[in-house]
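User: Modeling request: complex.
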Amino acid sequence: MSDKSNIPEITDSDCLAAMDHLYAYLNGELKDKEKHALVEHHLGHCKSCFSRAEMERQINSRLKASGVKEMPETLQKRLRGILDKF
Amino acid sequence: MPDITLIKDFFSRGIEENMHSLYAIALRLTRNAADAEDLVADCVIKAWSAIQSLEDKSRFRPWMFRILHNCFISNYRKKSVRPTELTYCEECGDDADDDIASLLIEQPNEFLCWWANPERELTNQLLGEDISVAIDALPEVFRITVSLISVEGLSYDEAAEVLEVSPGTIRSRMNRGRTLLQKALWQHAKDAGLIKDVAMMECKSYE
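Assistant: Request completed. Predicted assembly structure:
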């Protein structure tokens, strides 16, 4: 159990509760309807958390784009060579 | 007994469709292009030898990632290049009950002030390379979890299958991994002079 009293008073407990589920929410993995509604409601009322969620969405897009690696042709040929031998 | 030609066609098609993703994840794991190529090749050979163990063909993608990850652990982890990694407490970093509050306790006040007053436009100013460097600086368990979910689009259940942990652990690793990623991006932006003092000023008003 974490001691939340050590956190500077910059974020209230509603924000922390919403943030606990933010990544699951943004990834479409928050299946509990009650928690899903809680996060949506909080994001609709808290400017700071809404900004954080928007930033996380942007980072998600950037992360997806970062995954498109140009695969070396040598490796493609190597893999096709391996597959041909099976 | 299924026709071996059909199995081979299925396997070859699966590799063709997923080879870029396998290479991208191998690169994230090894952080070395030559090792990443060898890892993918080893993984394909190993996967073919184990193809009969794949019971559900729809799980081919997570099954391949699991073999890739296991190959990495067995043969490559010890020699993988280790750039400066962010601090990670093994004992406190992989608990399914881990919440954001416990993660924030470990962070410096200056970061917390920014965290509470984020500047959305900051992300636009960061280059793709900055984000790539930030991911590479994450400890391995978070690097692979964030890469599988946020980059390759696996579900939490699929990532749990790949890494052979519970979905709750994946959720915890995502919370911690993405918080550490935020911190790395914040540090980078701060060093580059992209962070305004607004966050600190707004933060002081809470005191």
